[in-house]
Design brief:
Length: 278
């Protein structure tokens, strides 16, 4: 069948996936939510016509947004996820026995419902006894919590619409305050090809707040340009100082102790985005 879903990744470039069927569509109070069954990537979650995750490539993003930071902190007992209503980030977090409580704060409860219904392999840990799900604005949640989280992960949509505030300096200040004295933070920060200015600005904000600021990369084929960035801010522990020996075996398909290190090796055009004079 010649039925295609197309994401306009920039005004001048698109990614199209041949689609077997549209499994679901709704308008939530926050956004349009659709689930497609694609030939190449399996089921695909789409918000406001932007691909969020697919069954076939979600492991890259979810492993990389979690395990780098979880293996950097020696005992991440309390973890907060902002966004991430599909549950993929939570599924990876609960693989770590040391985590006592993982709190998910998602603004749109409909995303969680759709994930439970259409993406059981991604959402499967949302009912774990160590997981607490709160439907609320992550910005407010962070503002109202002080010194409680060892790790905060921002698993957001692109910086437009509901997620815009999750890329602001004011929000990062509240994140810093919501962390414990040796806490750390990681956020998905978009494409180095198409969002260079954003990456530069976010890195500057994070480096201004946290003693340790790092950017790392992973390859997510359904995101614009494929190459994707994550920005990490840490009060104490440096992800580059992590000893590869002694890391827990997590059954991962993208993350490994060697990838933990190599992800921080930046091509010069990416390293340039982080230069102080920018
Ligand atoms: N968060 C969305 C990453 C941004 C994708 N951008 C795009 N396709 N233009 C992913 C949520 C997965 N838990």
């Amino acid at each position: 069948m010649n039925f295609w879903f197309t994401e306009l990744q920039t005004p001048d470039m698109a990614l199209s996936c041949r689609t077997k069927t549209m499994l679901h569509y709704e308008k939530t109070p926050f956004q349009e939510l659709a689930v497609y069954d694609t030939v190449q990537f399996g089921r695909m979650l789409v918000l406001d016509d932007v691909i969020q995750t697919t069954v076939n490539d979600e492991f890259v993003y979810h492993e990389m947004i979690t395990h780098v930071a979880l293996n950097t902190h020696p005992s991440p007992r309390r973890v907060l996820v902002i966004g991430g209503g599909d549950g993929g980030t939570i599924r990876e977090i609960v693989k770590h026995r040391v985590v006592e409580k993982a709190t998910l704060v998602e603004i749109d409860g409909r995303v969680i419902e759709a994930a439970k219904r259409f993406f059981p392999e991604i959402s499967c840990a949302l009912d774990d006894p160590r997981v607490e799900v709160i439907i609320d604005d992550g910005i407010r949640h962070v503002r109202e919590h002080r010194g409680v989280y060892d790790l905060i992960i921002v698993d957001s949509t692109d910086p437009v619409g509901p997620a815009e505030g999750l890329f602001s300096a004011a929000f990062y200040r509240d994140v810093f305050e919501a962390l414990t004295a040796d806490g750390l933070f990681v956020a998905q920060t978009e494409s180095p090809f198409f969002n260079g200015d954003l990456i530069t600005r976010v890195f500057k904000d994070i480096a201004g707040l946290f003693p340790v600021a790092r950017l790392y990369l992973a390859c997510v084929p359904t995101y614009p340009g494929g190459l994707w960035t994550f920005t990490l801010g840490s009060k104490k522990y440096d992800p580059l100082q992590v000893e590869a020996t002694g890391l827990p075996e997590l059954g991962t398909r993208y993350y490994s102790p060697a990838v933990h290190r190599s992800a921080f090796i930046l091509p010069p055009f990416v390293a340039d985005l982080l230069r102080a004079e920018k």
